[in-house]
Amino acid sequence: MNENTTAFECRRCGHCCLGEGGIVLTVKDQQRLAGHLGLELAAFLEAHTTTRGSKVHLGVRTDGLCVFFDEGCGIHPARPDICRAWPYFRGNLIDDSSWELALEYCTGINPNVPHQEFVRQGLAALREQGVGVTGDPEAPSALKLDGIEKP
After folding, report:
1. Cβ atoms 92, 1 nearer than 8 A
2. What is the distance between the alpha carbons of residues 92 and 60, in angstroms, rounded to a whole number?
């Protein structure tokens, strides 16, 4: 697809990599990242995460960026599912107002692609990445696809 028809193309700006405690890691994410980094799970958790309550969060640097951001994602092939899904979060798929806010936030989202096409490409991208779930009440809200129909 060319620039005019592609709904999203990452610009590696790091805007979505900024923010304290935003990335909650699933067990699958933790195992994938530890393996990618060549670390035992316990060593990965100790070095790169924090735990709040029962949730494990990816660490952030003092400047607020993800510990793995360095002119782009330093763990891109093994990045967490929530990162794989961006910007195709549930809210952006079901609500064009949320999508419009995301357009202002993320320069990688193509403003020339209508919301319906964004949804179509988003659902295909989520399937390709193997993220997005249905019927799992424990899944992160942003990844729940229950009730989202292909336009």
Report:
1. no
2. 25
Long-range contacts from 137-141, C-beta under 8 angstroms, 24+ separation:
140/24, 140/26, 140/81, 140/82, 141/90
Report the distance separating Cα 42 and Cα 128, nearest Å: 30
Q: Which helix (H) or strand (E) holds 51?
A: strand 49-52
End-to-end CA distance of the chain: give it in Å, rounded: 19
Residues 136 and 81: beta-carbon distance below 8 Å? no
Specify the pTM.
0.87
How far is residue 66's CA from residue 146's CA, in Å, rounded to a whole number? 29
Where is 56: in which H helix or E strand? strand 55-58
Condensed to tens digits (0 to 9), the pLDDT of residues 59-115 reads 999 998 999 999 889 999 999 999 999 999 999 999 999 999 999 989 999 999 999
